[in-house]
Amino acid sequence: MKINPKYFPILLSGALAFGILMGGWLNFPSQNQIFVKNNSKNKLNKLLDFIDNEYVDKVNADTITNRAIKTILAQLDPHSVYIPPSEQAQVAESMRGEFVGIGVNFYMYKDSLAIIKTVENGPSEKAGIKSGDRILYADKTKLYGRKLPTDSLFSKLKGKEGSEIWVTIYRKTEDKKLNIKIKRGVIPIKSVDAALLLNPTTGYIKINRFAESTYKEFYQGLTKLKEQGAKSLVIDLRDNGGGYLEQAVAIADEFLTDKQLIVFTKDKNGTLEKTYATKEGSFENGRLFVLINENSASASEILAGAIQDNDRGTIVGRRSFGKGLVQREMDFNDGSAVRLTIARYYTPTGRSIQKPYTKGNEDYLKEAELRFKSGELYYKDSIKTPNTPKFKTPKGKIVYGGGGIVPDVFVPLELEPSKEHTVYLLQTGVLGQFVFEQLDQNRNAFKGLAFEQFKVKMQGTDLYFNAFQKYLFRNGINMNLDTNKALVKRYLAAEFARQLFNESKFYEILLKEDAMIEKVLK
After folding, report:
1. Domain Tail specific protease, which positions (predicted)?
2. 142 is known as an active-site residue
């Protein structure tokens, strides 16, 4: 399949925007009952009974009900959504921040389940599974040569904590089969990708979403960085679609002083709920920077808004997504759920940053595409703020409501089209697949290398750059990489580092020439 490179920005922004719709909700207590004051629900129930009992053809009542629920919710707002049982378990697992399994990252390579990497200190690593191994059987279930969907593979490897599974693996590096018993355990799904030093006094923490474990992960990272000498801190919320409100609030509390307002919500009755910082902040005085972009939403905007409105730090990047609606998750007996908008949230100065949605969900999602076309992502002057509500921070800085957090320091997308298209290509899954296949051909080429040795090796060769160019052509992606050779080599080195070492090493390489990081450090 050939992909026109000019569509990469739009495709990626659309995918991320959909993820924000499904993934960016706030954590309010769930309720199992929805009370309606009129007889409309009786009409719906009767109609379903009529169809079930009298309709001329046989129909699936569940399918009709699900479609009816989705249609009703679509009339409300873009963030009131229905989650079917098949998706709810996975979503809940992701936001819980853990699951029970064997602890492997895998890739379906050709016809077999290939291990990219084992989770550090996880069950598979402890049992002796290695990167590059193929899992042929899970107990007696054959996994290769069947083109099984990913969810089926997961179901074979997951189970109850402490339960055991026998796997038959093929180890290519030794050309032999092994039978290995693995005891399933709790596997963390990390929401903090990296906590590292950009220089001797500047720390960096990357948060990919706000799950139940995010504050704990963040605090551990912050503590480590302070011990290493960090006096300034960069929090990276780019492409973070949100999550639990309480996690964003807890992180904001680390930077704000006692009784500073963090966020407040207002429901349809005008009831206000205000949340203030406590005395417990562990980083109330160091320099602080928050990175955002057009895909930073929901809880990300709460954190950025609290920092900006209290004059606590500098917001760097591009205007955020603009989600200021609060959802409550309500469960149905069949395992499905509905997330219903029950309030709006406001930043400390009183601004709502929810962008308009009166034209429907389709136009709401296309707003991200319009930012590309209007030039907003490239030029600060293209951000439309003259007609939006203005607010003042305690120190007199003007901030804007009506559609996302406008950064204090604007950093555009790369202006050179070829470079921009290359970046979007490198952020898709094609790079990870290429790197795995390269390692699979000759994993011994990196055996025993320390990280510093690895970096020298990658800088000193064009072998993988040339191979990646050929790989793209073979797969119908006709993009010439020569004009962005240094950029491509940096991404290649970063992805190799991720698969050979860990996520933190990935960011250590990738951030070396990051435009927003460069702006912060200068």
Report:
1. 175-356
2. no
